[in-house]
């Protein structure tokens, strides 16, 4: 447990030039607290203690502005920088060494069971206010720019910099 906490602190320090010390990160970085509390709520969730898991995630959302469903799976060294407004859905999977900026949404597009949220590979950067919807896959080392909306998978190493507007007409996906 201590090793994971140290690993998280080192990851934030490496990815956030404003982070001056581990103490400052602990005291003034809500993204770290959201991830630490998510680990507890996720443990409760996978062990069938669902109501307390959901309640803990709700408390954390009110405190940090970051909503991570307890069912979501987060890799190691995930950094949420300026995390206000981040939403990560129940079936989302996030790989290792991912950097998430403010306002990012990993959301679903349908209400039925099964995989409904994105899978994000390793070493991915998700720009501010980017929105990834549905059971899409973002490949390793991809970079998603600010304000990009995606409903299609992106291959490894790709960069998406321009806004992609997706409209839904009569239940079909169509890129405009």
Describe the protein's architecture and organization.
The protein has 176 residues and is of the alpha/beta class. The protein has one domain (2-175): Hexapeptide repeat proteins (UDP N-Acetylglucosamine Acyltransferase, domain 1), CATH 2.160.10.10. The protein contains four helices and 16 strands. The protein has helices spanning 2-15, 22-28, 30-46, 50-64; strands at residues 67-68, 73-74, 79-80, 87-88, 93-94, 99-100, 105-107, 119-120, 125-126, 131-133, 137-138, 143-144, 149-150, 159-160, 166-169, 172-175. The strands form four sheets. The protein has a five-stranded parallel sheet. The chain is globular, with a radius of gyration of 16 Å.
Into which percent range does the helicity of residues fall? 25-40%
Uncertain residue ranges = 167-176
How many separate helices? 4
Order of helices and strands: HHHHEEEEEEEEEEEEEEEE
Task: Could you tell me the CATH topology label.
Answer: UDP N-Acetylglucosamine Acyltransferase, domain 1
Report the strand count: 16
Strand order of the largest sheet: 1-4-7-10-13
Task: Name the descriptors.
alpha/beta, UDP N-Acetylglucosamine Acyltransferase, domain 1, five-stranded parallel sheet, 4 helices
Reconstruct the topology from this structure.
Elements: H1 2-15, H2 22-28, H3 30-46, H4 50-64, E1 67-68, E2 73-74, E3 79-80, E4 87-88, E5 93-94, E6 99-100, E7 105-107, E8 119-120, E9 125-126, E10 131-133, E11 137-138, E12 143-144, E13 149-150, E14 159-160, E15 166-169, E16 172-175
Parallel strand pairs: 1-4, 2-5, 3-6, 4-7, 5-8, 6-9, 7-10, 8-11, 9-12, 10-13, 12-14
Antiparallel strand pairs: 15-16
């Amino acid at each position: 447990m201590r090793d994971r906490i140290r690993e998280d602190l080192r990851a934030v320090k490496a990815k956030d030039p404003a982070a001056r010390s581990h103490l400052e990160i602990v005291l003034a970085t809500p993204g770290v607290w959201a991830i630490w509390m998510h680990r507890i709520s996720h443990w409760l969730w996978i062990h069938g203690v669902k109501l307390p898991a959901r309640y803990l995630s709700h408390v954390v959302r009110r405190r940090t502005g970051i909503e991570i469903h307890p069912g979501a799976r987060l890799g190691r060294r995930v950094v949420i920088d300026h995390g206000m407004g981040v939403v990560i859905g129940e079936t989302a999977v996030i790989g290792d060494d991912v950097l998430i900026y403010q306002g990012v949404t990993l959301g679903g597009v349908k209400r039925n069971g099964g995989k409904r949220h994105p899978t994000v590979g390793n070493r991915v950067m998700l720009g501010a206010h980017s929105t990834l919807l549905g059971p899409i896959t973002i490949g390793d080392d991809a970079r998603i720019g600010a304000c990009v909306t995606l409903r299609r998978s992106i291959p490894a190493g790709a960069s998406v910099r321009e806004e992609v507007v997706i409209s839904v007409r009569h239940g079909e996906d169509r890129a405009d």
